[in-house]
Please model this.
Amino acid sequence: MIRIKKLDIFITKQFGLLFIGTFFICQFVLMMQFLWRYIDELIGKGLSVDVLAEFFWHMGMMLVPQALPLAILLSSLITFGNLGESSELTAIKAAGISLMQAFRPLVAITVLICAASLYFQNTIGPEANRKLAMMLITMKQTSPELEIPEGVFYDGIPSSNLYVHKKDKETGRLYGIMIYRMTGGYDDQAIILADSGMLQATAEKKHLLLTLWSGEWFENMRARDVGRDAAVPYRREMFVEKKILFDYDGGFNMDNGMSLSNDARGKSFARIRSDMDSITLHYDSIGRNYYMQAATSFYNLCKVTRKDSLKALARASATAYDIDSAYAALTASQKQAVLGNALQRAQINKSELEFKAMVTNEGDKLIRQHKIEWVAKITLALSCLIFFFIGAPLGAIIRKGGLGMPVLISVLVFIVYYILDNSGYRMARGGMWTIWFGKGLAPAVLVPMAVFFTVKATNDSVVFNVDVYTELMRRFLGLRVKRHVARKEVIINEPDYAADLEALRYINEGIEAYSSRHRLKFAPNWIKVFFKYEPDHEMEMVAERLEEVIEDLGNSRDRTIINHLSVYPIISVRAHTRPFESRWKNVVAAVVLPVGVLLYLRMWRFRLRLYRDLRTVKSTNDVIIGRIVEMGRA
Model:
């Protein structure tokens, strides 16, 4: 029996309020991004409020499944970020409740949202997509004059520039019309002026009929009708009513709603499956027809059986026929005629094959689009669950609430998802990738991220601690922190100057012996480094003894000693000896030459740095030893 605890109710309330708010924010952002694609179809077209409201409604319904994953990502990030920032998440863990138990109610809610997203994409989304496309088509077909802006020249009609001073948005009538037409070039241009006019689409939606009233027509006569050097005459015509037919096949000219029948985005799962069967059957029949045409043309399969055709081919191959000798016996004119005939037949066959390939490729493209849409509906619904297991653990790790860091991380994650999903979609649509690989690319990348963040958050591992990564990069690049020793205001124990003096002299002797024995200025031996490594603890003992002296002398009241203590470098005691502690890692690094060379050069660099550090230590030791002797503490 499932028990609902107070903690589950508390976390659900926190998440629910944030989810509602972030959903509307994400929905608004997506709608604004989508609106820019159709801003030209809406602005200045005199559309009524109810038409615009219907347009935005269908657009919002279509974008709901896309807003859900982003809203879940952002709301889960903020929810657990707030809980971590206010130390409530720490209290939850202190009470013996694991992070996965805290996730439990939200996981159930996210699964329900996934199911709702899938249902939405199967029922409401396709209908909204279809109605939105029909509205765009209707705006273009029923009122083509809405495309014409006021007060500027419109060049959307080929070979013509149309200027309209004013439009009556209720009647669709145009006033103050000026048209520049260039049918054969600038020398053959015509200028048409009219007081008013009406623009309408023809019944077949392939032409535009412009009716003009009370105007004049100025047109140059064609230059080829007169001499080259003669002046080109022009024609002037005044009219009461004039009709002009534009051959136009774009923008205004869009097919009716039947053109949307092949758009897979406006179909449910059942409709996609049914249409895929119909499309496959249709193009299979076309392919079989093409095959039969080829078989009839080359093998005459319509008249003989396959067995007879094989016998006929065997008989034909048995009869030797030398094409080269037959061609050589022809005259020059006959050879030219034969080559021309062969070239013509080859071009005809090529054109026919290109047409057939275009038809079959169109069928393959339609089938791919339907398969892509089928998979896209599933992956988009599953992305809600994936985004939750990215957002919730990240919120528990970074422990930052509000809209600052969570929004930044959400945007970065969504950009990665969008780039991968869009790239996979384009590659799958073009046939370069398989459908499941293209549409599954984004989930395949984000699922390991979700698992990684969930494991790290459950184990309280450090992921976004800047100091950890800074220290890692510092060690990798060989950078080090400068030593800083400050003079103490209150000193409890005075330093043992005599013991420190002896220790510094001992360190100087050890440095001299080590430098002469290991020859730090020269390159190390490759074989000894990677294959015959021997432990080197001498420098570790020197560095440890030096740190003890520095710590003890840090209690000194003498400013000279304190100032020189900060000159001591922090010695790296292992980086100059071998790349790794493990022997087999060193062997592998030596075999992989690029890696081995880089590690070898890095180690040589550390040897040279150690040589300089030892010289600095020795010179500093001499100064401090002299100061101790001068103070009479020896």
Remarks:
- Residues 133 and 228 are 53 Å apart (CA to CA).
- The first strand starts at residue 153 and ends at 154.
